[in-house]
Amino acid sequence: MEQTRYIKDLARELGFDYCGISAAVQLDDDARRLEQWLKKGMHGSMHYMENHFDKRIDPRKLVDGAKSVITLLYNYFPSERQREDAPKVSKYAYGADYHEVIREKLKTMLARMQERIGAVQGRGFVDSAPVLERSWARRSGLGWMGKNGNIINKQSGSFYFIATLITDIELEYDGPVADYCGTCTRCLDACPTGAIVSPGVVDGSRCISYFTIELKDQLIPEKMQGSFDNWMFGCDTCQDVCPWNRFSKPNTEVAFTPIPAILNFSTSDWEEMTEEAFKTIFRHSPLKRSKYAGIRRNLHFLERK
């Protein structure tokens, strides 16, 4: 109990908004769902999702002797918005790359645990390994799985990064919370491409985020023409319409302060930007995942709507 309390206090000290803990076990139900999802090809060209299936469903294959999965939520909801007439960028990408920011916090957290508790072995992950983060967040009571596939926290909504720290120490475990989506279908109704095919099931191969970030092909399929609602990088539509996000509060992480270009660039500014300027302005931004060529492709696709 003392170690669990220390870890949760430490998480708050490091800026995490929520911390939940689950026993490190094999996720049999999630394994079946993931297998069906992959069989239906809903991962599109994201073939890496087919790899390391055994590690995705069992944290003990990622960390020897794993006993606990610590799941953490980190708020990224911004206090400012882009100008209305600009190509839209998902809110998670307004500031610095979250991988860099949260990875350092996880390293610090593990080091502090080792100082206080002793010989703790563990590994921290933030969107960087075959970990079913949302499943662990749900199991540890940080929220429920919304119909849009996101974890929704009753107090604060869904604009959170999810990180996990898998360790070999036994702790006190939390349990899941109830699902409060009820009969609401706003996210399904609002999805511009109909990617939310049923409650809790998102066809990744139809998601705007997939096309604008993950798809590495030269061209976005013509059949998607006119359905992107001016989203250039990612998409927040299903979160923007979610009633629970009325409780979202701006984050306090300095590193997530919006890059001025994201807030202020007009369509012509984006179109006229050189590759050199892109690399300079967005060198620490999630936008570098799409690279300059990807942003140019996305802009061209939006222009042809």
TrEMBL record:
<feature type="binding site">
    <location>
        <position position="216"/>
    </location>
    <ligand>
        <name>tRNA</name>
    </ligand>
</feature>
<protein>
    <recommendedName>
        <fullName>Epoxyqueuosine reductase</fullName>
        <ecNumber>1.17.99.6</ecNumber>
    </recommendedName>
</protein>
<keyword id="KW-0671">Queuosine biosynthesis</keyword>
<keyword id="KW-0963">Cytoplasm</keyword>
<feature type="binding site">
    <location>
        <position position="238"/>
    </location>
    <ligand>
        <name>[4Fe-4S] cluster 2</name>
    </ligand>
</feature>
<dbReference type="GO" id="GO:0005737">
    <property type="term" value="C:cytoplasm"/>
</dbReference>
<comment type="pathway">
    <text>tRNA modification; tRNA-queuosine biosynthesis.</text>
</comment>
<dbReference type="InterPro" id="IPR017900">
    <property type="entry name" value="4Fe4S_Fe_S_CS"/>
</dbReference>
<keyword id="KW-0411">Iron-sulfur</keyword>
<dbReference type="GO" id="GO:0052693">
    <property type="term" value="F:epoxyqueuosine reductase activity"/>
</dbReference>
<dbReference type="Pfam" id="PF13484">
    <property type="entry name" value="Fer4_16"/>
</dbReference>
<feature type="binding site">
    <location>
        <position position="127"/>
    </location>
    <ligand>
        <name>cob(II)alamin</name>
    </ligand>
</feature>
<comment type="similarity">
    <text>Belongs to the QueG family.</text>
</comment>
<feature type="binding site">
    <location>
        <position position="184"/>
    </location>
    <ligand>
        <name>[4Fe-4S] cluster 1</name>
    </ligand>
</feature>
<comment type="function">
    <text>Catalyzes the conversion of epoxyqueuosine (oQ) to queuosine (Q), which is a hypermodified base found in the wobble positions of tRNA(Asp), tRNA(Asn), tRNA(His) and tRNA(Tyr).</text>
</comment>
<comment type="subunit">
    <text>Monomer.</text>
</comment>
<feature type="binding site">
    <location>
        <position position="56"/>
    </location>
    <ligand>
        <name>cob(II)alamin</name>
    </ligand>
</feature>
<dbReference type="InterPro" id="IPR004453">
    <property type="entry name" value="QueG"/>
</dbReference>
<feature type="binding site">
    <location>
        <position position="151"/>
    </location>
    <ligand>
        <name>cob(II)alamin</name>
    </ligand>
</feature>
<keyword id="KW-0408">Iron</keyword>
<keyword id="KW-0819">tRNA processing</keyword>
<dbReference type="Pfam" id="PF08331">
    <property type="entry name" value="QueG_DUF1730"/>
</dbReference>
<dbReference type="GO" id="GO:0031419">
    <property type="term" value="F:cobalamin binding"/>
</dbReference>
<feature type="domain" description="4Fe-4S ferredoxin-type">
    <location>
        <begin position="169"/>
        <end position="201"/>
    </location>
</feature>
<dbReference type="GO" id="GO:0008616">
    <property type="term" value="P:tRNA queuosine(34) biosynthetic process"/>
</dbReference>
<feature type="binding site">
    <location>
        <position position="209"/>
    </location>
    <ligand>
        <name>cob(II)alamin</name>
    </ligand>
</feature>
<dbReference type="GO" id="GO:0051539">
    <property type="term" value="F:4 iron, 4 sulfur cluster binding"/>
</dbReference>
<feature type="binding site">
    <location>
        <position position="235"/>
    </location>
    <ligand>
        <name>[4Fe-4S] cluster 2</name>
    </ligand>
</feature>
<feature type="binding site">
    <location>
        <position position="242"/>
    </location>
    <ligand>
        <name>[4Fe-4S] cluster 1</name>
    </ligand>
</feature>
<feature type="binding site">
    <location>
        <begin position="235"/>
        <end position="236"/>
    </location>
    <ligand>
        <name>cob(II)alamin</name>
    </ligand>
</feature>
<keyword id="KW-0479">Metal-binding</keyword>
<feature type="binding site">
    <location>
        <position position="148"/>
    </location>
    <ligand>
        <name>cob(II)alamin</name>
    </ligand>
</feature>
<keyword id="KW-0004">4Fe-4S</keyword>
<keyword id="KW-0560">Oxidoreductase</keyword>
<feature type="binding site">
    <location>
        <position position="162"/>
    </location>
    <ligand>
        <name>cob(II)alamin</name>
    </ligand>
</feature>
<keyword id="KW-0170">Cobalt</keyword>
<feature type="binding site">
    <location>
        <position position="181"/>
    </location>
    <ligand>
        <name>[4Fe-4S] cluster 1</name>
    </ligand>
</feature>
<dbReference type="InterPro" id="IPR017896">
    <property type="entry name" value="4Fe4S_Fe-S-bd"/>
</dbReference>
<feature type="binding site">
    <location>
        <position position="187"/>
    </location>
    <ligand>
        <name>[4Fe-4S] cluster 1</name>
    </ligand>
</feature>
<dbReference type="GO" id="GO:0046872">
    <property type="term" value="F:metal ion binding"/>
</dbReference>
<dbReference type="InterPro" id="IPR013542">
    <property type="entry name" value="QueG_DUF1730"/>
</dbReference>
<feature type="binding site">
    <location>
        <position position="191"/>
    </location>
    <ligand>
        <name>[4Fe-4S] cluster 2</name>
    </ligand>
</feature>
